[in-house]
Design brief:
By secondary structure, the chain is an all-alpha fold. It is about 85% helix and about 0% strand.
């Protein structure tokens, strides 16, 4: 059971990190395009992927992580690396839920209003990419934390 939980946990992390990286690359492509359709497609894709891929991956990641700590005789919620993982998860989640979702909503409204190639949309897309860049850095620190388990 431990091995399967660990596998599912790592798989969920791969989905979140790898999917986020690909979404950032798609955002960069949309930002560099002069096509309103490219920005609109990015907005629709990010909303679709966010609800159907990232949200389930985050829930599975958190659930399997907590489950593995609960059933392990070696790991405890008081260990530094476990606490760091929880804090990093919360930071990445909050950036996405508070900052990125707000920008995505504004970008969606801009794209629906026919302003997908306006300077405002370009600025919003740049802000979204930068914000998700921060999320990716936080997630990479979390991956480092999971691999090296500092403080053990």
């Amino acid at each position: 059971m431990d091995t399967w939980l660990h596998f599912i946990h790592v798989l969920a992390a791969i989905v979140w990190v790898g999917g986020g990286l690909m979404l950032c690359v798609s955002g960069l492509q949309a930002r560099s395009s002069a096509s309103a359709a490219a920005v609109s497609l990015f907005v629709r894709t990010s909303a679709y992927v966010g609800l159907r891929l990232f949200l389930p991956a985050m829930v599975v990641l958190l659930a399997t992580g907590i489950w593995m700590v609960l059933i392990s005789s070696e790991w405890h919620f008081s260990q530094f690396w476990v606490l760091l993982a929880i804090v990093l998860f919360a930071v990445a989640f909050l950036i996405g839920a508070v900052y990125l979702s707000r920008i995505a909503i504004q970008l969606g409204r801009s794209a629906e209003g026919g302003e997908a190639t306006s300077p405002k949309s370009g600025t919003l897309l740049t802000q979204w990419i930068a914000g998700y860049g921060v999320v990716l850095i936080v997630l990479l620190v979390a991956v480092w934390d999971m691999v090296f388990k500092p403080g053990t």
